[in-house]
Amino acid sequence: MNPRYKGLLLAAVLALGACGKGSEPALLAFPSGPSGGIEIKYPLDETLFPPEIVAPTFVWSDETEGVAEWMILLRFDHTDEVLRFPTTEPRWRPSEADWAVIKQRSVEQDAEVAIVGVGGDAAAVSSASVRIRTSKDPVGDSIFYREVPLPFITAVQDPSRIRWRFGSIDSETAPPVVLEDLPVCGNCHSFSGDGSVLGL
C-alpha cells in the first residue's frame, strides 16, 4: 500500500477512536434531591430489614414525561462508591449476590437508594431516594401470617378467600398455606401461650 494512503488510514482510525471515546455518556451522579414526578412505593424510607430476609422488590411510579428507563443508584455511609443497576420497568429486584453485598454493607448503617428516571438523551429527568439498613438481629424463627385478597372488602364479604401461611423469611419460595377455606374471619392475633392453639 502506498505510504501516503497508510498514513491517511491511520489518521482516520485514530479519529474514529477519539470520537467513540468522546461519545460515551457520563455516569449519572447521585441526585442531590427529589425531582420530577417519581414516587418510591416500596420500600419506605428508613426501612429496617432483618439480615436473613431474601431480596425485596423495589417498586415506584413515575409520571415524568420523557422517561425511557431508570437507573438504581446505591451508596453507603462513609464511602463515595456508587453501585448502579439499570432497568426498563418501574420495579427492580437485586440478584441474590447483589442483595448479599447490600445487606452486608448496610448493617447498622444507612444505604441510600436513589431511583433516577433517564430520558432518551441519557440525562436524568426524575429522581427520588430512600434510606434502608440491615439489622444485626435475625428474626430467628418462622412467621405465621394472614394473606388477604385486595381490596379488603372482598375478604370481608367472603372470608373463605383468606389464607394463612407459615414459613421462614429466608426462602425464595412462598411459605406453604397451612389454613384456608374458613367460613368466618379467624382471630389471627389470639394464640395460646405455647402457640399451639389459634383463637377463632
Bulk shape: globular
- Name the beta content range: 25-35%
Number of strands: 11
Structural class designation:
alpha+beta
Order of helices and strands: HEEEEEEHEEEHEE
CATH C-level class of the largest domain:
Mainly Beta
CATH fold-level label of the largest domain: Immunoglobulin-like
Structure in words:
The chain is of the alpha+beta class. The chain folds into two domains: about 40-135, Immunoglobulin-like; about 140-200, no CATH class. It contains three helices and eleven strands; from the N terminus they run αββββββαβββαββ. The protein has helices spanning about 5-20, 95-105, 150-155, and strands at about 40, 45-50, 60, 65-75, 80-85, 90, 110-120, 125-135, 145, 165, 175-180. The strands form three sheets. A five-stranded mixed β-sheet has the order 2-8-7-4-5. The model is unreliable at about 5-25 (pLDDT under 50).
Descriptors:
200 residues; Immunoglobulin-like; 2 domains; five-stranded mixed beta sheet; three-stranded antiparallel beta sheet; 3 helices; 11 strands
Short account of what is shown:
This protein has about 200 residues and is an alpha+beta fold. It is built from three helices and eleven strands. The protein starts with a helix and ends in a 20-residue tail after the last strand.
